[in-house]
């Protein structure tokens, strides 16, 4: 009984004790987890700093609502500005770091209103519409970040576009008060109207330490090459006046001067030129009989006759842009918008974005002392070149001058290219209109060591009306393992291609492209349908090549993607008796060209052939219906400095079924024209780029006494 009573007295009391213990344990555990979640949430969502908590957006905060910051009279002033600054001395590239997109990150300081001790603002205009547009464009771009710790570049929300509206000392003190200023390191300031009377300095007078300056009036004395960025002076008329693009060509006036505040000596000289050349030159000035205001800004006059500005600029081939009190002039933007070729006379002026833009293609720069010779200089420019310059001038405006957004994005891209040079825009991307789709193709000079095998190649077959032969070529090419796509270039405008049901059935996509004109150069056009790096150009009568020959040619090209890889080789020789070059098709020990009747090459060269072929070579080829293959050999050799690669022993493309009427190469004048082509092209290139070699590429076991079934390419074909 005692034992039983003892057990019974402990048993009932033990269960509640276990429940209490577990309850305390779970409550403690739950409390720890809850506190952890709260702490994590606070860390995640609580602003890490005042800087990163205020994302820049004028939509969320007006200028009047911005916090007021008083500047003490004793606040520090930044250094004047180090003229020796370069990207490797005054810019911390390590702050930018590596990122997969190769894109710098730009942080915009929160908007603040800076005033002195008595409440007077540092600027008489506050935040201008232009600077607001600029900051908004940056904040909407891929460059922007609201995380100050990720920023590579810092842009103050202090507007210094127009120095005339600034209090120099107080503005400098405001810059020094920025939390991340650090002597201006990695800070970017935008200024379009530098200096002031009487000397009009060509760079912003505000002391700025090491800050980069995107300036609109740099001279060679103030511009820090490779550090600062020369930008245009924005013209408000760009947004207010819509000038439709005008086709290049002759205009009513040859030269036009529209500036109203040029130096008296320049105006006297222009009037003398006007007297000498009459109606060819139109010399405009401001209208004295109009009331001041917006209307007068958009008018120009000559002897009482009123002209609309900037519309009148479209009536001239050349438009004068002379220096004023400042080197940078908004007139340059107006002239470009009108598609008028600017004649720039401003000694020592650093042209906008000249770090990347080729101004020789869009303008004429004449020393100021040559103003009396301007008419003669401009008359010496060929009409065709003038038209190209008119077209390029308009495109420069559209791409780089037309808005504050365009100016800002161009500035940031230039800085981005400096920091990530391996991903920088090419000359073509900066200077060629977008009709040339350079972004869709990479130069083979910078491909991986060996392009991957998987994408294969695109066979581009040029044809006219040899249907039976074309179908045989398609059937044979389709047997090549690495073929990815077939593209038939139908060069006959008088006859439609066969119906779809009649074409050979192949396992790869087949596309027919109809051309507008019968030109040999059509075979090298950069069609959008070409998606592979490798291209096989082949004629519609090349039925003799085996699938092994074609597959081996592709494998060789993969190892040498910057070369032309072909089959029959040809040679150029110097004829000492005739004193000129000669085309040679006989069997020799040397090769300097391969026929593109069947040849592999990188699609990049299609773009160069179509858009960058020197002189009139492409037109000459199309007019003579010959030598497009020689032109391509010249082009590739000139770009790479390397010879083509001949593969397999084949010497000729023999077409047993082709007659003299069908075969272009059998024309009696063909060989004579081929020699003429070489001399013509060498003259245009200004050199002989073709390189001579004494080797060809064959499969390793090509002639070895080895079982055929063990060879990778047993059917290499005959001579």
Looking at this protein, list some descriptive labels:
Rossmann fold; 19 helices; 30% helix; eight-stranded mixed sheet; single chain; alpha/beta
How are the secondary structure elements laid out?
Layout lengths: L1 H44 L4 H4 L14 E3 L16 H4 L15 E3 L4 E3 L13 H11 L13 E3 L12 H9 L11 E4 L20 E4 L13 E2 L6 H4 L12 E5 L6 H14 L3 E3 L10 H4 L1 E4 L2 E4 L7 E7 L8 H7 L3 E5 L18 E2 L8 H6 L3 H19 L2 H16 L7 H5 L25 E7 L3 H11 L5 E8 L19 E5 L19 E6 L7 H13 L5 E2 L2 E7 L4 E5 L8 E2 L3 E5 L1 H8 L5 H8 L3 H13 L4 E3 L22 H16 L10 E2 L22
Parallel strand pairs: 1-3, 2-4, 5-6, 6-7, 8-9, 8-12, 12-13, 13-14, 15-16, 15-18, 16-17, 19-24, 24-25
Antiparallel strand pairs: 10-11, 18-23, 19-23, 20-21, 20-22
Helix pairs in contact: 4-12, 9-11, 11-12, 18-19
Brief account:
The chain is of the alpha/beta class.
Give a verbal description of the structure.
There is one protein chain. The protein has 719 residues and is of the alpha/beta class. It folds into three domains: 68-234 and 403-423, no CATH class; 236-398, 3-Layer(aba) Sandwich (Rossmann fold), CATH 3.40.50; 457-654 and 662-697, Spore Coat Polysaccharide Biosynthesis Protein SpsA, Chain A. The chain contains 19 helices and 25 strands. Strands 17-16-15-18-23-19-24-25 form an eight-stranded mixed β-sheet, with helices on both faces. Strand 8 (253-257), helix 7 (264-277) and strand 9 (281-283) form a beta-alpha-beta unit. Helix 9 (331-337) crosses helix 11 and helix 18 (628-640) packs parallel to helix 19. The longest helix has 44 residues, at 2-45. The chain is globular. The chain starts with a helix and ends in a 22-residue tail after the last strand. The relative contact order is 0.06. The model is unreliable at 1-21, 38-61 and 656-666 (pLDDT under 50). Keywords: Disulfide bond, Endoplasmic reticulum, Glycoprotein, Glycosyltransferase, Golgi apparatus, Manganese, Membrane, Metal-binding, Signal-anchor, Transferase, Transmembrane, Transmembrane helix. Pathway: Protein modification; protein glycosylation. GO terms for molecular function: acetylglucosaminyltransferase activity; glucuronosyl-N-acetylglucosaminyl-proteoglycan 4-alpha-N-acetylglucosaminyltransferase activity; metal ion binding; N-acetylglucosaminyl-proteoglycan 4-beta-glucuronosyltransferase activity. Residues 101-381 form the Exostosin GT47 domain.
